[in-house]
Task: structure prediction
Amino acid sequence: MKLSIVIVNYNGAHFLTACLDSVLASKTPFPFEVIVVDNQSTDGSRAILDGYQHRLIRLNMGYNSGFSAGNNAGARLATGDYLLLLNNDTVVFESTLTDLVTYFDEHPDIGMLAPKLLNGDGSLQTPGSLLMRWAYYGDRPRSVSFLAGAAIMLQRSFYETLGGLDEAYFFYNEDLDLCKTIQKQGRSLVYFPQASMIHFGGLSTRTRRRGSILEGYRGGLYFCKKHYGGGVYAIYRWVVLLDLLPRWAMNWLLSLFQSDRAEMARGYGDVIKLVWFNLPLVRSS
Result:
């Protein structure tokens, strides 16, 4: 098997059919397999997946394991030389998979490869910090400091050597962590704009804003402590706290007039407790 595509799904029914249909319609000169890990969806995803039962490998987790653990579970079933970790809110073009694999075959020493990401209207997505977004406007492959986790390809053996995604990240920041880990191994992250796909973005977090706020900050704090040590982390905690307090206050005031702001205020409050009391950064199972 040349390529294994792992798709973690949690309540992604809105985009799941388009994603799977595009992947299965890919024109490739090599065999590939599609592994869908469902994190106990409740939105009709299971019925959709029933319609593909003979065209993909399906793993029902029985609980919401999170993005990192779900990808690792799918990767353990994979048999391909390459792994493509693909978001469920993406649509690939007919040549996307072939273009990515061909480039990786020609450059086997790179650490991770990612295609150009397009918004639903065809405009360019530029992941990462504002200072680094210029790197994604070129039309040639180039090494970058960050690749968004919506679509990332690695050699399966290298992924296994790294231990997969760090499961301390439930969702958010796991791609940042993987990029940092790969760079520490001395391998490059390559942006490959000759291959492209559509990424709609934000699918899995729109309906759980409070949890998204908490996990976003939790992951950032854990990343800082893991990669930069306790001294830097101690400073970063206070920087985060100074950022959080006005956000919480603003949303609490607005919640008096806008009901949806109450959930956001509670989310920022959760993070303030996490930082102030120096609570564990790894979620309890």
In short: Strands lie at 3-9, 32-38, 57-60, 82-86, 90-92, 112-118, 142-144, 151-155, 189-199. The longest strand covers residues 189-199. Residues 208-276 form one domain.
